[in-house]
Specification:
GO terms for molecular function: uroporphyrin-III C-methyltransferase activity. The chain is α/β, with parallel strands linked by helices. Helix content is 24%, strand content 18%. It has eleven helices and 17 strands. The protein has a five-stranded parallel β-sheet with strand order 3-2-1-4-5, sandwiched between helices. Strands 10-9-11-8-12 form a five-stranded parallel β-sheet, with helices on both faces. A five-stranded mixed β-sheet has the order 13-14-17-15-16, sandwiched between helices. The chain starts with 54 loop residues before the first strand and ends in a 14-residue tail after the last strand.
Length: 450
Protein backbone atom coordinates (compact mmCIF):
# COMPACT_ATOMS: atom_id res chain seq x y z
CA UNK A 1 0.00 0.00 0.00
CA UNK A 2 3.04 2.22 0.21
CA UNK A 3 3.88 4.46 -2.72
CA UNK A 4 7.04 3.89 -4.78
CA UNK A 5 8.39 7.18 -3.42
CA UNK A 6 8.45 5.79 0.10
CA UNK A 7 12.12 4.94 0.77
CA UNK A 8 11.14 2.61 3.59
CA UNK A 9 9.38 0.36 1.06
CA UNK A 10 11.91 0.43 -1.80
CA UNK A 11 13.06 -1.67 -3.61
CA UNK A 12 9.79 -3.23 -4.68
CA UNK A 13 8.74 -6.87 -4.40
CA UNK A 14 9.98 -7.72 -7.90
CA UNK A 15 13.26 -5.83 -7.72
CA UNK A 16 16.12 -8.36 -8.03
CA UNK A 17 18.20 -6.23 -5.64
CA UNK A 18 15.72 -6.97 -2.88
CA UNK A 19 17.56 -9.34 -0.49
CA UNK A 20 14.30 -10.90 0.74
CA UNK A 21 12.37 -11.26 -2.51
CA UNK A 22 15.18 -11.94 -5.01
CA UNK A 23 14.56 -15.11 -7.06
CA UNK A 24 15.93 -18.37 -5.65
CA UNK A 25 17.24 -21.35 -7.57
CA UNK A 26 14.58 -23.93 -8.31
CA UNK A 27 14.00 -26.24 -5.38
CA UNK A 28 15.92 -24.02 -2.93
CA UNK A 29 14.40 -23.59 0.53
CA UNK A 30 13.20 -20.13 1.52
CA UNK A 31 15.41 -19.17 4.51
CA UNK A 32 12.72 -16.80 5.77
CA UNK A 33 10.31 -19.76 6.05
CA UNK A 34 12.73 -22.41 7.20
CA UNK A 35 12.08 -23.96 10.55
CA UNK A 36 14.45 -22.80 13.25
CA UNK A 37 15.01 -23.02 16.98
CA UNK A 38 12.54 -20.22 17.61
CA UNK A 39 9.63 -21.60 15.65
CA UNK A 40 8.36 -22.23 12.12
CA UNK A 41 9.35 -18.73 11.01
CA UNK A 42 13.01 -19.27 11.81
CA UNK A 43 15.30 -17.75 14.43
CA UNK A 44 14.57 -14.28 15.75
CA UNK A 45 16.77 -11.46 14.49
CA UNK A 46 16.82 -8.85 17.29
CA UNK A 47 16.62 -5.26 16.15
CA UNK A 48 15.63 -1.99 17.79
CA UNK A 49 12.98 0.01 15.92
CA UNK A 50 13.42 3.79 15.93
CA UNK A 51 9.81 4.89 15.57
CA UNK A 52 10.09 8.61 16.35
CA UNK A 53 7.36 10.42 14.35
CA UNK A 54 6.65 7.27 12.32
CA UNK A 55 3.11 5.99 11.79
CA UNK A 56 2.16 2.88 13.76
CA UNK A 57 -1.26 1.23 13.66
CA UNK A 58 -2.71 -0.71 16.59
CA UNK A 59 -5.92 -2.58 15.84
CA UNK A 60 -7.78 -3.26 19.07
CA UNK A 61 -8.49 -1.25 22.18
CA UNK A 62 -8.37 -3.68 25.11
CA UNK A 63 -5.76 -4.47 27.73
CA UNK A 64 -3.34 -6.11 25.28
CA UNK A 65 -3.48 -3.09 23.01
CA UNK A 66 -3.04 -0.84 26.03
CA UNK A 67 0.23 -2.56 26.96
CA UNK A 68 1.59 -2.35 23.41
CA UNK A 69 0.58 1.30 23.03
CA UNK A 70 2.42 2.23 26.23
CA UNK A 71 5.77 1.23 24.72
CA UNK A 72 4.98 2.79 21.36
CA UNK A 73 4.07 6.11 22.95
CA UNK A 74 7.30 5.98 24.94
CA UNK A 75 9.13 5.53 21.62
CA UNK A 76 7.28 8.67 20.44
CA UNK A 77 5.70 6.99 17.44
CA UNK A 78 2.63 8.47 15.78
CA UNK A 79 0.17 5.89 17.11
CA UNK A 80 -3.29 5.34 15.65
CA UNK A 81 -5.64 2.96 17.47
CA UNK A 82 -8.45 1.43 15.42
CA UNK A 83 -11.24 0.06 17.61
CA UNK A 84 -14.92 0.78 18.39
CA UNK A 85 -13.98 0.93 22.10
CA UNK A 86 -10.80 1.49 24.06
CA UNK A 87 -9.76 1.25 27.72
CA UNK A 88 -10.10 4.42 29.82
CA UNK A 89 -6.30 4.69 29.96
CA UNK A 90 -6.07 4.70 26.16
CA UNK A 91 -8.89 7.22 25.89
CA UNK A 92 -7.00 9.49 28.26
CA UNK A 93 -4.13 9.63 25.75
CA UNK A 94 -6.32 11.06 22.99
CA UNK A 95 -6.91 14.59 24.30
CA UNK A 96 -3.21 15.44 24.83
CA UNK A 97 -2.45 14.12 21.34
CA UNK A 98 -0.43 11.08 22.39
CA UNK A 99 -2.47 8.92 20.02
CA UNK A 100 -5.22 9.09 17.39
CA UNK A 101 -8.34 7.00 17.92
CA UNK A 102 -10.41 5.80 14.95
CA UNK A 103 -13.63 4.82 16.71
CA UNK A 104 -14.66 2.02 14.38
CA UNK A 105 -13.80 -1.52 13.32
CA UNK A 106 -10.75 -2.29 11.22
CA UNK A 107 -11.06 -1.74 7.46
CA UNK A 108 -8.71 -2.81 4.65
CA UNK A 109 -6.35 0.05 3.90
CA UNK A 110 -5.97 1.11 7.53
CA UNK A 111 -2.29 0.19 7.38
CA UNK A 112 -1.52 2.61 4.55
CA UNK A 113 1.66 4.53 5.32
CA UNK A 114 2.43 2.53 8.46
CA UNK A 115 5.90 1.40 9.45
CA UNK A 116 4.69 -1.10 12.02
CA UNK A 117 1.40 -2.70 13.02
CA UNK A 118 -0.10 -4.54 15.97
CA UNK A 119 -3.14 -6.83 15.69
CA UNK A 120 -4.58 -7.02 19.21
CA UNK A 121 -8.32 -7.61 18.96
CA UNK A 122 -10.24 -10.54 20.47
CA UNK A 123 -11.40 -11.58 16.99
CA UNK A 124 -9.01 -14.03 15.30
CA UNK A 125 -10.44 -13.27 11.85
CA UNK A 126 -9.78 -9.55 12.25
CA UNK A 127 -6.26 -10.20 13.50
CA UNK A 128 -5.63 -12.50 10.54
CA UNK A 129 -6.87 -9.82 8.12
CA UNK A 130 -4.58 -7.23 9.67
CA UNK A 131 -1.63 -9.61 9.46
CA UNK A 132 -2.43 -10.43 5.84
CA UNK A 133 -2.60 -6.76 4.86
CA UNK A 134 0.66 -6.12 6.67
CA UNK A 135 2.33 -9.05 4.85
CA UNK A 136 1.10 -7.77 1.50
CA UNK A 137 2.34 -4.24 2.23
CA UNK A 138 5.63 -5.54 3.68
CA UNK A 139 4.93 -4.02 7.08
CA UNK A 140 6.12 -5.93 10.11
CA UNK A 141 3.15 -6.92 12.26
CA UNK A 142 2.87 -8.32 15.78
CA UNK A 143 -0.21 -10.49 16.08
CA UNK A 144 -1.05 -10.74 19.79
CA UNK A 145 -3.16 -13.90 19.56
CA UNK A 146 -0.93 -16.01 17.30
CA UNK A 147 2.82 -15.74 17.64
CA UNK A 148 3.39 -18.26 14.84
CA UNK A 149 1.56 -15.99 12.39
CA UNK A 150 3.43 -12.84 13.44
CA UNK A 151 6.24 -11.43 11.34
CA UNK A 152 7.73 -9.89 14.48
CA UNK A 153 7.90 -10.94 18.12
CA UNK A 154 7.86 -8.25 20.77
CA UNK A 155 10.60 -8.84 23.36
CA UNK A 156 10.22 -8.42 27.09
CA UNK A 157 11.67 -4.95 27.45
CA UNK A 158 13.18 -3.10 30.40
CA UNK A 159 15.02 0.20 30.75
CA UNK A 160 17.98 1.24 32.84
CA UNK A 161 18.53 4.92 32.11
CA UNK A 162 19.29 5.09 28.39
CA UNK A 163 20.08 1.37 28.27
CA UNK A 164 17.30 -0.79 26.81
CA UNK A 165 17.19 -4.52 27.55
CA UNK A 166 15.14 -6.73 25.24
CA UNK A 167 14.81 -10.48 25.79
CA UNK A 168 13.26 -13.11 23.53
CA UNK A 169 12.48 -16.30 25.40
CA UNK A 170 12.55 -18.82 22.58
CA UNK A 171 8.78 -18.72 22.35
CA UNK A 172 8.21 -18.64 26.12
CA UNK A 173 7.10 -15.11 27.21
CA UNK A 174 7.37 -15.91 30.93
CA UNK A 175 10.96 -17.01 30.49
CA UNK A 176 11.76 -13.77 28.68
CA UNK A 177 10.12 -11.71 31.42
CA UNK A 178 12.03 -13.53 34.16
CA UNK A 179 15.38 -12.97 32.45
CA UNK A 180 14.50 -9.34 31.65
CA UNK A 181 13.62 -8.67 35.28
CA UNK A 182 16.81 -10.30 36.52
CA UNK A 183 18.99 -8.20 34.19
CA UNK A 184 17.25 -4.92 34.98
CA UNK A 185 17.36 -5.68 38.71
CA UNK A 186 21.07 -6.42 38.47
CA UNK A 187 21.73 -3.19 36.60
CA UNK A 188 19.66 -1.29 39.14
CA UNK A 189 21.32 -2.64 42.27
CA UNK A 190 24.79 -2.70 40.76
CA UNK A 191 25.33 -6.47 40.76
CA UNK A 192 25.60 -6.17 36.97
CA UNK A 193 28.18 -3.46 36.41
CA UNK A 194 27.48 -0.60 33.99
CA UNK A 195 30.48 1.43 35.00
CA UNK A 196 31.16 2.89 31.56
CA UNK A 197 27.82 4.66 31.34
CA UNK A 198 27.43 8.38 31.73
CA UNK A 199 24.41 10.35 32.82
CA UNK A 200 22.16 11.17 29.86
CA UNK A 201 21.16 14.47 31.44
CA UNK A 202 24.66 15.92 31.65
CA UNK A 203 26.33 14.24 28.70
CA UNK A 204 29.61 14.22 30.60
CA UNK A 205 31.21 12.50 33.56
CA UNK A 206 31.14 15.17 36.28
CA UNK A 207 27.87 15.95 38.00
CA UNK A 208 25.79 15.55 41.12
CA UNK A 209 22.65 13.48 41.61
CA UNK A 210 20.68 14.38 44.73
CA UNK A 211 18.92 11.15 45.73
CA UNK A 212 16.10 10.76 48.22
CA UNK A 213 16.66 7.31 49.72
CA UNK A 214 13.22 6.85 51.23
CA UNK A 215 12.42 5.94 54.84
CA UNK A 216 15.33 3.52 55.34
CA UNK A 217 14.51 0.15 53.82
CA UNK A 218 16.68 -0.13 50.69
CA UNK A 219 13.76 -1.75 48.85
CA UNK A 220 11.85 1.54 49.13
CA UNK A 221 14.32 3.71 47.24
CA UNK A 222 13.18 4.62 43.72
CA UNK A 223 14.48 2.79 40.67
CA UNK A 224 16.25 5.93 39.44
CA UNK A 225 17.80 6.38 42.88
CA UNK A 226 19.28 2.88 42.82
CA UNK A 227 20.57 3.43 39.32
CA UNK A 228 22.36 6.59 40.38
CA UNK A 229 23.97 4.90 43.40
CA UNK A 230 25.10 1.95 41.28
CA UNK A 231 26.80 4.28 38.78
CA UNK A 232 28.42 6.62 41.31
CA UNK A 233 32.12 7.37 41.67
CA UNK A 234 31.48 9.14 44.98
CA UNK A 235 28.60 8.73 47.45
CA UNK A 236 28.06 11.34 50.15
CA UNK A 237 25.60 9.67 52.53
CA UNK A 238 23.51 10.62 55.57
CA UNK A 239 23.02 8.18 58.43
CA UNK A 240 19.28 7.95 57.67
CA UNK A 241 19.90 6.90 54.06
CA UNK A 242 19.61 3.19 53.11
CA UNK A 243 23.25 2.50 53.91
CA UNK A 244 23.09 -1.21 53.04
CA UNK A 245 23.14 -0.14 49.38
CA UNK A 246 26.73 0.97 49.89
CA UNK A 247 27.87 -2.59 50.60
CA UNK A 248 27.34 -3.57 46.94
CA UNK A 249 29.52 -0.78 45.56
CA UNK A 250 32.98 -1.54 44.13
CA UNK A 251 35.95 -0.77 46.36
CA UNK A 252 37.03 2.13 44.16
CA UNK A 253 33.85 4.09 44.91
CA UNK A 254 34.55 6.78 47.51
CA UNK A 255 31.99 6.79 50.33
CA UNK A 256 31.84 9.91 52.52
CA UNK A 257 29.95 9.97 55.81
CA UNK A 258 27.97 13.20 56.00
CA UNK A 259 25.73 12.21 58.91
CA UNK A 260 23.97 14.79 61.07
CA UNK A 261 23.24 13.11 64.38
CA UNK A 262 20.48 14.71 66.48
CA UNK A 263 22.20 17.08 68.89
CA UNK A 264 25.45 15.22 68.24
CA UNK A 265 28.23 14.91 65.72
CA UNK A 266 27.48 16.30 62.27
CA UNK A 267 29.20 17.49 59.12
CA UNK A 268 28.63 21.18 58.45
CA UNK A 269 26.35 21.88 55.51
CA UNK A 270 28.97 24.17 53.98
CA UNK A 271 31.48 21.31 54.02
CA UNK A 272 28.99 19.00 52.33
CA UNK A 273 28.38 21.58 49.61
CA UNK A 274 32.12 21.96 49.03
CA UNK A 275 32.59 18.19 48.78
CA UNK A 276 29.86 17.84 46.18
CA UNK A 277 31.23 20.64 44.03
CA UNK A 278 34.88 19.60 44.42
CA UNK A 279 34.34 15.99 43.41
CA UNK A 280 32.05 16.88 40.52
CA UNK A 281 34.48 19.44 39.09
CA UNK A 282 37.13 16.71 39.23
CA UNK A 283 35.00 14.74 36.74
CA UNK A 284 33.35 12.41 39.26
CA UNK A 285 29.77 11.18 39.25
CA UNK A 286 28.66 12.21 42.73
CA UNK A 287 25.55 10.94 44.51
CA UNK A 288 24.26 12.79 47.54
CA UNK A 289 22.29 10.05 49.29
CA UNK A 290 19.80 11.32 51.85
CA UNK A 291 17.00 9.80 53.89
CA UNK A 292 13.39 10.43 52.89
CA UNK A 293 12.98 13.13 50.26
CA UNK A 294 15.79 15.66 49.78
CA UNK A 295 13.37 18.59 49.73
CA UNK A 296 11.44 17.66 52.88
CA UNK A 297 13.52 19.09 55.73
CA UNK A 298 16.59 17.73 53.97
CA UNK A 299 18.37 20.97 53.01
CA UNK A 300 18.45 19.67 49.47
CA UNK A 301 17.88 23.04 47.85
CA UNK A 302 20.97 24.43 49.55
CA UNK A 303 23.01 21.72 47.87
CA UNK A 304 21.35 22.34 44.50
CA UNK A 305 22.09 26.06 44.78
CA UNK A 306 25.75 25.38 45.59
CA UNK A 307 26.10 23.13 42.54
CA UNK A 308 24.36 25.55 40.20
CA UNK A 309 26.50 28.46 41.44
CA UNK A 310 29.63 26.43 40.66
CA UNK A 311 28.42 25.40 37.21
CA UNK A 312 27.99 21.75 38.23
CA UNK A 313 25.18 19.80 36.49
CA UNK A 314 22.73 18.53 39.09
CA UNK A 315 19.75 16.17 39.00
CA UNK A 316 17.17 15.72 41.76
CA UNK A 317 15.72 12.24 42.36
CA UNK A 318 12.71 12.53 44.69
CA UNK A 319 12.35 10.04 47.51
CA UNK A 320 9.46 8.62 49.52
CA UNK A 321 9.26 10.95 52.50
CA UNK A 322 9.11 9.33 55.92
CA UNK A 323 6.31 11.74 56.83
CA UNK A 324 3.93 9.60 54.76
CA UNK A 325 5.78 6.30 54.41
CA UNK A 326 6.48 5.58 58.07
CA UNK A 327 2.88 6.07 59.26
CA UNK A 328 1.68 4.02 56.28
CA UNK A 329 4.00 1.15 57.18
CA UNK A 330 2.43 1.17 60.64
CA UNK A 331 -1.06 1.02 59.12
CA UNK A 332 -1.84 4.71 59.67
CA UNK A 333 -3.11 6.74 56.71
CA UNK A 334 -2.45 10.47 56.92
CA UNK A 335 -5.84 11.09 55.27
CA UNK A 336 -9.12 9.18 55.27
CA UNK A 337 -12.39 9.93 53.51
CA UNK A 338 -14.96 11.51 55.78
CA UNK A 339 -12.44 12.00 58.58
CA UNK A 340 -9.73 14.39 57.45
CA UNK A 341 -9.30 16.62 54.44
CA UNK A 342 -5.85 17.92 55.25
CA UNK A 343 -2.56 16.92 56.81
CA UNK A 344 0.45 18.99 57.72
CA UNK A 345 4.08 17.97 58.17
CA UNK A 346 6.00 19.91 60.81
CA UNK A 347 9.65 19.98 61.77
CA UNK A 348 9.96 19.55 65.52
CA UNK A 349 13.70 20.24 65.78
CA UNK A 350 12.88 23.53 67.57
CA UNK A 351 10.31 23.69 70.40
CA UNK A 352 7.39 26.12 70.45
CA UNK A 353 8.52 29.54 71.63
CA UNK A 354 12.07 29.17 70.33
CA UNK A 355 13.16 32.48 68.77
CA UNK A 356 14.22 30.74 65.53
CA UNK A 357 11.06 28.66 65.14
CA UNK A 358 8.97 29.50 62.05
CA UNK A 359 6.00 27.30 63.03
CA UNK A 360 2.68 28.88 64.02
CA UNK A 361 1.68 26.25 66.60
CA UNK A 362 -1.59 27.98 67.38
CA UNK A 363 -2.64 27.61 63.72
CA UNK A 364 -1.50 23.97 63.67
CA UNK A 365 -3.58 23.25 66.78
CA UNK A 366 -6.72 24.65 65.16
CA UNK A 367 -6.52 22.22 62.23
CA UNK A 368 -8.98 19.33 62.33
CA UNK A 369 -6.87 16.97 60.26
CA UNK A 370 -3.61 15.11 60.76
CA UNK A 371 -0.34 16.52 62.11
CA UNK A 372 2.87 14.62 61.34
CA UNK A 373 5.93 15.65 63.35
CA UNK A 374 9.46 14.89 62.13
CA UNK A 375 12.62 15.35 64.19
CA UNK A 376 10.47 15.92 67.26
CA UNK A 377 11.35 13.33 69.90
CA UNK A 378 13.15 15.61 72.37
CA UNK A 379 10.74 18.48 71.76
CA UNK A 380 7.56 16.34 71.86
CA UNK A 381 6.48 17.31 75.40
CA UNK A 382 6.64 21.02 74.54
CA UNK A 383 4.87 20.51 71.22
CA UNK A 384 2.07 18.45 72.80
CA UNK A 385 1.58 21.12 75.45
CA UNK A 386 1.35 23.84 72.78
CA UNK A 387 -1.19 21.90 70.76
CA UNK A 388 -3.40 21.37 73.83
CA UNK A 389 -2.97 24.98 74.91
CA UNK A 390 -4.21 26.23 71.56
CA UNK A 391 -7.26 24.01 71.31
CA UNK A 392 -6.42 20.42 70.42
CA UNK A 393 -8.19 18.00 72.75
CA UNK A 394 -5.88 16.28 75.29
CA UNK A 395 -7.52 12.96 74.33
CA UNK A 396 -6.49 13.27 70.66
CA UNK A 397 -4.90 9.97 69.55
CA UNK A 398 -1.15 9.94 68.94
CA UNK A 399 1.06 7.24 67.43
CA UNK A 400 4.85 7.24 67.64
CA UNK A 401 6.61 5.11 65.03
CA UNK A 402 10.33 4.63 65.63
CA UNK A 403 12.90 3.10 63.26
CA UNK A 404 10.34 3.15 60.46
CA UNK A 405 10.75 0.59 57.63
CA UNK A 406 13.58 -1.22 59.44
CA UNK A 407 13.49 -4.60 61.23
CA UNK A 408 13.31 -2.75 64.57
CA UNK A 409 10.27 -0.66 63.64
CA UNK A 410 8.00 -0.13 66.63
CA UNK A 411 4.70 1.70 67.11
CA UNK A 412 3.47 3.08 70.43
CA UNK A 413 -0.01 4.59 70.76
CA UNK A 414 -1.02 7.19 73.27
CA UNK A 415 -2.77 10.58 73.51
CA UNK A 416 -1.55 14.16 73.47
CA UNK A 417 -1.97 14.38 77.24
CA UNK A 418 0.00 11.18 77.85
CA UNK A 419 2.66 11.70 75.17
CA UNK A 420 5.50 12.93 77.45
CA UNK A 421 5.07 10.02 79.89
CA UNK A 422 4.75 7.50 77.05
CA UNK A 423 7.97 8.67 75.43
CA UNK A 424 9.84 8.22 78.69
CA UNK A 425 8.29 4.86 79.58
CA UNK A 426 8.76 3.40 76.09
CA UNK A 427 12.27 4.85 75.87
CA UNK A 428 11.66 6.26 72.40
CA UNK A 429 14.80 7.46 70.63
CA UNK A 430 15.29 9.08 67.22
CA UNK A 431 14.61 8.47 64.46
CA UNK A 432 10.88 8.53 65.10
CA UNK A 433 7.81 10.03 63.48
CA UNK A 434 4.74 10.86 65.49
CA UNK A 435 1.23 11.37 64.20
CA UNK A 436 -1.61 13.33 65.78
CA UNK A 437 -5.24 12.93 64.80
CA UNK A 438 -8.23 10.59 64.54
CA UNK A 439 -6.57 8.59 61.73
CA UNK A 440 -4.35 7.00 64.38
CA UNK A 441 -7.29 4.91 65.60
CA UNK A 442 -8.19 3.52 62.17
CA UNK A 443 -5.87 0.55 61.83
CA UNK A 444 -3.87 -1.92 63.91
CA UNK A 445 -0.10 -1.73 63.84
CA UNK A 446 0.97 -3.54 60.69
CA UNK A 447 4.50 -3.97 62.01
CA UNK A 448 3.28 -6.26 64.82
CA UNK A 449 2.20 -9.81 63.80
CA UNK A 450 -1.35 -10.60 64.87
Amino acid sequence: MATPADPARAPGPTDPADPVRAPRPSGAADPARAAGPSGPGGPVYPVGLRLLDRRVIVVGGGQVAHRRVAGLVEARAHVTVVSPEVTPALEALVAPGSLTWLRRRYQPGDLDGAWYAVAATDDADVNAAVAAEAESARIFCARADDRASSSVWTPATGRHGDLVVGVHGGGDPQRAIAVRDAVVSGLTDGTIADRTSRDVMTGRAGGVVLVGGGPGDPALITVRGRQAVAQADVVVADHLAPLSLLASLPDEVEVIDASKLPRGRSMAQEQINELLVDRALAGKRVVRLKGGDPFVFGRGMEEVEACVAAGVPVEVVPGVTSAIAVPALAGIPVTHRGMTHEFVVVSGHLPPGHPQSLVDWSAIARLRGTVVVLMGVDTAPAIAAALVEHGRAPSTPVAIVSDGSTPTQRTVRTTLAELPATLATAEIRPPAVWVVGPVVSLSPDLSTPS
